[in-house]
Amino acid sequence: MKIAIIGFGTEGEAAYRYWKAQGADIAVHDVNPDTRLPADVDGVLGPDYLQKLDGYDLIVRSPGTRPDTIHGDAPVTSVTREFMKQCPAPIIGVTGTKGKGTTASLVSEILKQAGKQVWVGGNIGVPPLDFLAQVKPEDVVVLELSSFQLMDVETSPHIAVCLMIVPEHMNWHPNMAEYVAAKGNLFRFQQAGDMAVYHPGNEYSAKLAELSPGKRVPYLRAPGAEVRDGQIVIDDEVICGSDEVGLVGPHNLENICAAVTATWELAGCDPEPVRRAVKAFKGLEHRLEPAGEVDGVRYYDDSFSTTPETAVAAIASFAGPKVLILGGSDKQSEYGELARAVARGNVRRVILIGDMAPRLRHDLEAAGFTDITMGPRTMPEIAKIAREAAQKGDVVLLSPACASFGLFTNYKERGDQFKAAVAAWS
Known about the structure:
Helices cover 31% and strands 22% of the residues.
């Protein structure tokens, strides 16, 4: 076969390894003219990388490449699409706007506690084609799936979990309808024996679950897991108290309930392995991650927060006074509700950074919040201002509500620099 791989990031490299092992003749098309390629690969690099796509037997797109920008005479697939087509084991797929990485990871931990061999991939773990050859039919695969990955799939997971959906990636999707429709592919191709787990209080999630011909189970409401009288409960079995969980923040109780609902039957309806996992799991890096305590002030890295909704959830996770770091690059989001959450959320100071600082300042002031510092450009400077503004007993919270570009390469670099600044004071 002659194959074109569009984009040579993490998934592109996995596609190369997978199809090269099958003896394919591979060319890589990538917008970056400096992309380093294996010696046995032809390259079409630079601004015209989407040209000359005729003459291949298969085109493999990266998640960041829209399917409608690919104009060739061969069928188009992706790492996700190929894996879901070939995987011999049951797949649990998790999507939503935020929380899917945390939920997918907790799903994995519960199943491991229940004695399962679990493989984790998608946006977390490793590209799933890298472990496909090792997956046995009795194993379980957990995939965290974005709208980019789901947009053109034609196979749905055996257990599909859709968390809350709110507007995001409106700089990539032309409208909310396309974004939601992409998420809907998680359920659209399920079979009668499959299960759709959904958020009953989110109209998008609940509506998409109706696409599934399988068993539809809500979480946060029976028969799924729910929080009842301060306890996480499913099938009238108490998993643990809501104050015993390892994750910080009331929004994570939703993620926990989703994970428990998705795994309950696979775990044999046994509360013990579920309980062990829920109590022990502390979450993922850059998701309300403790970054240290200095002079009685606790610092939290929530750099993965790139939407207003996640910043609102972070603010609600701490009752005491907070110093909040907001801002970054534009994702076509609305910030009015975030500004109102700041105004009523016991926030002592807001430090605004990046291109969105002026817009955020306007919305904060419109909500009646004026204790604002504008525009520091380096993380040591940002962290220093936050430290000076905080008092003993406060929380300093990096929960930007925006993408990182402009000041930082990505959310990971932003969070790592924040943690390094805090560590330097210890």
